[in-house]
Amino acid sequence: MIFQRLLLLLLPILLIGCSSISSHSSSENKVGLLLEDTIDDQGWNSKGYQGLLNIHSNLNIDVVFMENMNTESKVKKAIEDFDEQNVNLVFGHGRFYADLFTQLGTEYSHIHFVSFNGEVEGENVTSLHFNSYAMGYFAGMLAAAMSENGNIGAIAAFDWQPEIKGFQDGASLSNSATIVHLKFVEDWADRERALTFFDELKQEGVDVFYPAGDGYHIDLIEEIRKEGLYAIGFVSDQSDLGETTILTSTVQHVDYLYELVAKRYYMDELHSGNLHYDFQDEVISLGEFSSSIPEEIKRKLEEAVQNYIKTGELPTEPIL
């Protein structure tokens, strides 16, 4: 079922913390969001929804969103509806929307289209890219350092995810004898297949997992916790799911980026094309560290992250 939800709760103009949008009057501003799945996944889609709420609350802009927009026909109909509602900035929350938005940008020149992690073209089309190789690199370093038997595993959605290559490289740096087991679900939300992969990797001796998929990671973490194994959270800080289980999380601050992009758009400062963001832009970070991590490992990893933020150089020495 396709849900359309409209938020028209106007905040007081003098609300403390609201930013002023000077290039367009408030009545001209409306932001739309398309999600492939639902806002209840406790991951990627939830973060996109929170970003939309930030735009509404902090920039005093009306917002509207639609869930389960996962086919071309649904997306095209949704954009028609948004156009009728005078939406002038549309976020498509994922790579799925990149090609469609490049096409739709030519048909709706008065709307600016924003997607994630895909290649786009057009004067009114933007793609936001998280440079997630580095976050995977730090996750791999920590996983290898904390594994008791040298077997770590990533259960990813797709093989193109840069964080998975980073995970492999970071693990190899931290311990060249580490075996990195990889499984690809080929879907962001296939819980059943992800759990099957977990059982397989558990049988192979994996004791630290990186569940890099936003629709099934919560289910995986629950099973990992039950087995007394370690996990590294994905997209959100998931330390609340088990402080001793979650070593840390690779966090993408999508909610912050939404507000930043909307502000730039309404100030006529948003560039088209493919824009890239990393730790230095404060949109990627590591989450809380588990008390299970030895202080020396934690200290060295924190120093490595700070050095990367300062210099752009990833570590070349292991943390253990």
The CATH architecture of the largest domain is: 3-Layer(aba) Sandwich
| Gap between N and C termini | 50 Å
Helicity, in percent? Answer: 25-40%
Using the CA coordinates, give the radius of gyration: 20 Å
Major beta sheet, strand line-up: 1-3-2-4-5-6-12
Largest sheet: 7 strands, mixed
Mean pLDDT: 90
SS class = alpha/beta
* The top level CATH class name of the largest domain: Alpha Beta
CATH superfamily of the largest domain: Response regulator
* Strand/helix succession: EEHEHEHEEHEHEHEHEEHEEH
CATH topology of the largest domain: Rossmann fold
Q: How many runs of DSSP E, i.e. beta strands?
A: 13
Strand content: 15-25%
- Coarse shape: globular
Which residues form runs of ≥5 with pLDDT under 50?
A: 1-20
| Tally of domains | 2
Give your account of this protein's structure:
There is one protein chain. α1 packs across α8, α4 runs parallel beside α5 and α6 runs parallel beside α7. The protein contains nine helices and 13 strands. The strands form two sheets. It has a seven-stranded mixed beta sheet, with helices on both faces. Strands 8-7-9-10-11-13 form a six-stranded mixed beta sheet, sandwiched between helices. The protein is of the alpha/beta class. α3 links the parallel β4 and β5. The chain has two domains: 155 residues, 3-Layer(aba) Sandwich (Rossmann fold), CATH 3.40.50; 143 residues, Rossmann fold (3-Layer(aba) Sandwich).
